[in-house]
Amino acid sequence: MAHQLNKEEQLCSDDCLKCSEICTQTADYCLQLSGKHAEANHIRLLLDCAEMCQTSAHFMLRTSQFYPRTCALCAEVCERCAKACERMVNGDALLRRCAEICQECAESCKKMASMVTV
Question: How far apart, in Å, are the Cα atoms of 17 and each of 50, 54, 102?
C-alpha cells in the first residue's frame, strides 16, 4: 500500500514544485535583463534552487528516508536565493515574487527537515 503524504508533507512538496518553477522562469528572465541580473553566480543560484526544490519534492513524494536531509539543504538554498532576488528587486514584480516563493519554500522545508523518518 502506498504511503499517503500528510498535510505538511503535501504542502512542502507543493511549495517546492512552485519554487522550482519560478526559479527556472526567473533565471530565464534575468538572462534577458542582462547586466547584474545575468551574472553567473546569480543564474547558478536560481538554477541550483530550482533543482534542489525539485529533488526535495520528489524525495517527499516517494517518502524517501533521506527527505529530511534534502529539505534541510533546500531550505538553505532557498533562503540564499530569496536574499539574492530581494537585493535585485528594485520594483521588479517577478523578482519580488521569486523572493517571496523562495522564502515560503524555505519555511516549509525547515519544518520537514525536523521530521524523522524510519
Answer: 8, 6, 11
DSSP designation for 5: P
Alpha-carbon distance of 100 to 80, in angstroms, equals 12
Any residues with CB less than 8 A from the CB of 1 and at least 6 apart, and which? none
DSSP annotation string for 69-106? HHHHHHHHHHHHHHHHHHHH-TT-HHHHHHHHHHHHHH
Grid coordinates representing 51 are: 533543482
State the pTM of this model. 0.92
Q: Categorize the per-residue pLDDT at 118 as very low, low, confident or very high, splitting at 50, 70 and 90.
A: very low
Residue position matching grid coordinates 543560484: 45
For the chain, which domains are there? Answer: 7-113 (1.20.1270.360)
